[in-house]
Structure formats: structure tokens, C-alpha cells
Design goal:
70 residues, alpha+beta, two-stranded antiparallel ribbon, globular
Length: 70
């Protein structure tokens, strides 16, 4: 999870916690500009669409995995 402020982190966290496709979300580490989370989710395309409606972008990176940003 990448963010620029505490407010953005809180908005992204709310989006993740209320997404119907997210089955489980665990915070593993946090810093001033990013967090590492373990997410269990259903269909990726549905999750991406739902998050897009909430103003959140999901990207896949070959080295980092799933990246979530506002």
C-alpha cells in the first residue's frame, strides 16, 4: 500500500476493509509512506473494479506483487 499522508492511508484502509472481494486483510508492517499487508481476496478483476469505484488503483508488479495506491 503506497500513500502520501495519514489521511490517504486511512482512506485506503477503509476501502480495503469494506471491499466485498477482500476476505481477510492483515497489516504486516507500516511506515510513513507505505504499508505491507497480506490480503486474501476473491476475483482480482472484480476487486480492481470495486476499488476503482472507490478511487483506489490496484497494480501488479512482478517484483513487489499487488500495489494499492490512491
Amino acid at each position: 500500500i503506497l500513500y502520501a499522508s495519514l489521511g490517504e492511508w486511512q482512506r485506503l484502509q477503509r476501502a480495503i476493509n469494506t471491499a466485498s472481494q477482500v476476505r481477510d486483510a492483515r497489516l504486516d508492517a507500516i511506515s510513513k509512506d507505505g504499508a505491507i499487508m497480506t490480503l486474501s481476496y476473491g476475483n482480482f478483476d472484480r476487486l480492481q473494479s470495486e476499488m476503482r469505484q472507490k478511487g483506489v488503483r490496484l497494480e501488479r508488479d512482478p517484483k513487489l506483487g499487488l500495489i494499492i495506491r490512491g
